[in-house]
Amino acid sequence: MGLPSRSIHLAACALAAGALLTGLVPASGALAAPVAPTVRAAAEDPPTEDMPDDGFDDEHEGEQDDLVGPGGTASGQRAPGVRAAPVPGRAGDFRLAAGGDLSGLVGRLDAALPKQGLTALMEQANRTAGWEAACGNTSIYGPDLAVNHRVCWAGDDLASTEWVPQAITGVSDAQEDEDWGTSNAEPIAVASYDAKNPGRSDQASGSQNCVQPSASDACNEKGVRVSFFNQATQKYRHVLLVWPYVNSKNNISFDALHASEGTCTGTVTPSCKAQNGIHAGGMVWYGNYLYVADTANGMRVFDLRKIMDLNPDNDADRNDPTPDGLESDVKDKKRIGRQNNVWYSFGYRYVMPQVATLKFTTAKNGGTTAGNQCYATGRPKASFLSLDRTGADHLILGEYCNKNNGGTSNGRVGTYPMSAITAAVEGAPGTVAADSAFGLPTGGTFNNETLWHKIQGALRYEGTWYFHRSNAYSNGRLLQATPGTVDGTTQLVGNTTILQSSYGPEDLYLAHGRGDGFAPQLWSLSEHAPSASCPGCKRELYSYNMSEVIGDFGS
Q: How far apart are CA 334 and CA 332, in angstroms?
């Protein structure tokens, strides 16, 4: 499960010296003053196309809503015949193992670049979100649930065709008391993926060279970014997630997150993309770590103590010196990593390198997944993640599936003790076993198709499960299920009540209210920007009072 293409570099790598953040007390911020350049490296760095393959499998097909057409069941209608899944889930299929050791690579980046603490990053949030009534009308919401909080994105984020929001987590996942540092920021984090996914051609051939003046910066596959929202100031900031590697000149560098690496011999085509992105359909912030779903592989892990700051003086017009004697450029949106002795980041001030990997160990089922099909056995898909803090802390992982296109399963969910997940990330040997797994309920119809599929997010709260079911460019549905004994086995049994949710509903996150005294909030987000296909669509974060959700399901 390791990454052998990089292992030859790891023995020479050592963690950078310096104080590290312990617990969740935020770091004090960037370096007080940039370190002056010393001796400039002689080696000219190649473009990022020399990056070795990172050992990850290609993503499954895109998991945006599979279009199902207009209409749907009426508000609050009871779906007929909902019954338990025909077979229980198999926890053994969900087993995970740590990937190759990235600590040495991250240590070299740590020594090369300035760091920034999350406290200072949040204080320097540069984009103002709309809040509550400032978000305008509520046309994307159904009549069944009253929206309690609403957050809408700024300008280009509201309508971007490149960046599509998918996953949500926050400080309530990060620590039980929600007492984040000394502020009342109570951050919410949202992951978005680069939906353009154009790939990048071999720059040496001169074909579709993304750094040419005529090329748009969208030519590059930028992977995943995380937006940290400060609830106190109602501002947010983007951080680009990156993968550390050593280039052919033996210099530490980084690139955007990709499911695979390669070099096209000529033009980028559907059959040859130099990079394929990942969907980042789920995310959990737990302690210092950020866990991001990688559909085909498992989870990628990031450390909030390792946020790199490529513009400490906050002046984008002037390149900043870096501790390794080079400089950083945050104006060039077409380059990334170390190139010709300059650090680039697709124009983002902050980057956060991957520090660990948790990969599925089970072999894939032999069936096709070209149309988001899923199977009752074999390796699952990591389509969404959430955290259950209502007992011993557990990570929830589940699959997005389109049963219309075949397969043998509507989808599965599995649960892992967070203690085992954290231990694996921090170097404990062995594998991480799921302690439970379920197939989704079956039965019931919606828009003349299967009800229990197309799940975009799942959450377990006080033993009861909640699922967000998408519905193309119309209102999705919130579903509920409870474990029950059927034919001598424990299976998920669906509640016959279904509730309308927003257009394009995605991941789920529960804010318990233990830090601020507010009632528990069930948070989610909508992915669709306004378009010709859906002029009424909007991208927002939103929450429901959890007590109302429970009451509306009659339990």
A: 6
Query: pLDDT exceeding 70 applies to what percent of the chain?
Result: 80
Alpha carbons 520 and 523: distance in angstroms, whole number: 10
Residue-wise pLDDT tens digits, 350-375: 999 999 999 999 999 999 888 899 99
Q: For residue 327, give the H/E element and its range.
A: strand 327-329
Is the CB of residue 495 less than 8 Å from the CB of residue 81? Answer: no
| Residue found under tokens 């439970």 | 436
Task: Please determine, for residue 489, whether its predicted confidence score (pLDDT) is greater than 80.
Answer: yes
Give me 267's structure tokens: 């033009």
Distance, CA of 58 to CA of 459 (rounded, Å): 27
Closest CA to 522 of 418, 382, 387: 387
Task: Tell me the two tokens of residue 421.
Answer: 């997940």
Instruction: Identify whether the C-beta of residue 415 lies closer than 8 Å to the C-beta of residue 67.
Output: no
The whole-angstrom distance between residue 148's C-alpha and the CA centroid of its chain comes to 24
- pLDDT at residue 87, as a whole number: 56
- Among 417, 386, 490, residue whose Cα is nearest residue 96: 417
Burial of 8 (C-beta count, 10 Å sphere; 0-12/13-18/19+): exposed
Query: What pLDDT sits at residue 3?
Result: 37
Sequence letter at residue 18: G
- Type of residue found at 118: L
Q: The whole model's pTM is what? A: 0.89
Amino acid at 202: D
Q: How many CB atoms lie within 10 A of CB 75?
A: 12
The pLDDT tens digits for 384-398 are 999 999 999 999 999
With tokens 């350049």, the residue in question is 37
Q: DSSP label at 322?
A: -
